[in-house]
# Entry
Amino acid sequence: ADTFDGPSGDAAPADPLFAPTLRTASLTAASLAALLAINVAAPDPALLQMMTTFALSTVVGYQVVWGVAHALHSPLMSVTNAVSGLTAVGGLCLMNGGVLPADTAGALAAAAVFMSSINVFGGFLITQRMLDMFKRPTDPREHTYLYAVPAAALVGGYYAALAGGYGNLYQMAYLGSALCCVGAIGGLATQRTARTGNALGVLGVGGGIAATLGMLGASPALYAQMGAAIGAGALIGTGIARSMAVTSLPQLVAAFHSFVGLAAVLTCGAQFVAEYAHFATDASAGVHKLAIALGSFIGGVTFTGSLVAYGKLDGSITSASVALPAKNVVNAAMAAGCLGAMGVFMVDPSYTAELYSLLAINGLAMALGAHTTMAIGGADAPVAVTVLNSYSGWALCAEGFMLNNNLLTVTGALIGSSGAILSYIMCVGMGRSLTNVLFGTWGGGKTGPALEVTGEVTEWTAATAVDALANAKKVLIVPGYGLAVASAQFAVAELVTSLIDNGIEVQFGIHPVAGRMPGQLNVLLADAGVDYDYVKEMEEVNEEMEEFDVSLVMGANDTVSIAAEKDPNSSIYGMPVIQVWKSKQVVVCKRSLAAGYAGSENPLFWEPNNAMLLGDAKKTAEALRDGVKAHFEAS
# Structure
């Protein structure tokens, strides 16, 4: 092949844009071909309409979620968790009987409504609690109660039209509810509009459930059963949300995800039992059966995966990676079993074969969810939680296809996109791929010797650290999960107040994967009264790191490790970190010199400009707070 030489006679480098452009073009071509193939395989107009709704909703969700502020990622997960409780709509559509369910399908549907209601009421209340933590004393009063006006317009207008004979208006009510759910996520773009976003979410979900109740035209006895299922779930969800400690937020979100997964499984089961008799004569039965199978699979994985994640985060299950030998072979075998059971479910017309194949899908999916999540180590918990959040959205989408319900399809795509994007952000923060997090381990394939460290570890007393802080002009504080475990955020907040009141500039640097879910440390600091204007992202503080006189690391390890940049054999090599060693002086507050969650030693501890302040994070923070306060009072 000919080569083209540059002015110096050297061969021109290969075109750097050809390969990525080819990949993008090939993916686009495959996607367009897949759309045509779906049309050929299932020409049902209703399916094509649902596919259009799904595709456009996914694009909208992708665009909206990217605009959410990083500091509000925890409220984002909480509000999408609440919105995913729209699985209640599917359950309501399948409830039957009077005050009690008439059959198995009705009982499954009632249980799904109950589970979903826990999510809705608990999720929105938790979101409101978190957002209220970010409010500052100087912020103007907000009037979110005025959103009762559009709520009355949507629900009251719908029921007035329903009384006037406009029975099909529920589709427009669904559209209004879906747009409010989009606005709920869009509102989290800034602190100023975040509480408005939560109000829109409440309006969207409440409007969707109200429209469903009106559309059903059920008997008073059945409405009583529906009200009992919703009311019982509301009481439990509200009670959980009110009693939740801020440090328990990650495990609570994981627990709520499990409710959504179980609700999806129950709704799919109820739909199968109720509609089996019509499959033989329904031209679109194949589409509905596929949606039932996919909803059962995704819901099963979400249910048990979330329960295991809850146990790991709560400490009732070890946070270490635990898996069967040849874990990926086991996972592949379970996934293949699910596909085989789906095949039987799709092609065998007998009730017994389809019922047992659906039960097999549920069982294998639940085993797969539990085993996959058990194999994920504690350091990967943020990704596990966001992936499960995404799964709950896709399960809701499957319900939408199963019931031909646009509201469920739109909101499911919105939540699925949200979880997927957060998972991507977390993986970038770790410098790893999603497949490596879910199916690999930290540092897979890295067997060489670790970076050799030289020198001695310097240990300081609290008094020495107080002197360094009090004489600094600019201080950076890098919190980690150890801060959350020790509940040291209040003492740190008081320390910061003393420093700022005496003319010292203070900033917080938050790593994208600090804590056990996205944005957890932002919420903890807000709960302690730290102004969010002082809280910066990793990239922001790294740009000015050399200007900081002191970097105070509180309960963090891997997120400030030099090994991530300088040791190719480290398990966290390539992970972006906060480069505290570039500041003039580093003080690491930690229980011991032990490795972090990833099992990697941190050479930072041996750096000449680093000092270790060993001990419990809360006691250390209180000692620093009291010492700094006494220093300035004496001067």
Remarks:
- The first strand starts at residue 474 and ends at 479.
- The CA atoms of residues 461 and 613 lie 6 Å apart.
- The radius of gyration is 27 Å.
- The chain is about 65% helix and 5% strand.
